[in-house]
């Protein structure tokens, strides 16, 4: 996947909490660090995020996106 953001951090999904509109995804990046990404529930479902998935937290400006 090509993307312009250059500050991606690999990690493992620790938890997925789906709301009606948004989802909170906790990503463990380096013990004991943890990043929380607030993404739409639709995006979380499309990515089929689950605990244990290897993902990359892509940080740009004030947002954290999730790529799988």
Automatic annotation (TrEMBL):
GO terms for cellular component: plasma membrane. Keywords: Molybdenum. Pfam families: TOBE (PF03459). GO terms for biological process: molybdate ion transport. It is a peripheral membrane protein. Residues 2-68 form the Mop domain. This is Molybdenum-pterin binding protein Mop3. It comes from Methanobrevibacter ruminantium (strain ATCC 35063 / DSM 1093 / JCM 13430 / OCM 146 / M1) (Methanobacterium ruminantium). The lineage of its organism: Archaea, Methanobacteriati, Methanobacteriota, Methanomada group, Methanobacteria.
């Amino acid at each position: 996947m090509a993307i312009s953001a250059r500050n991606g951090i690999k990690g493992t999904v620790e938890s997925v909490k789906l709301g009606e509109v948004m989802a909170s995804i906790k990503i463990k990046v380096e013990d004991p660090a943890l990043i929380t990404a607030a993404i739409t529930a639709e995006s979380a479902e499309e990515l089929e995020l689950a605990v244990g998935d290897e993902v990359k937290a892509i940080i740009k400006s004030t947002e954290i996106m999730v790529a799988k």
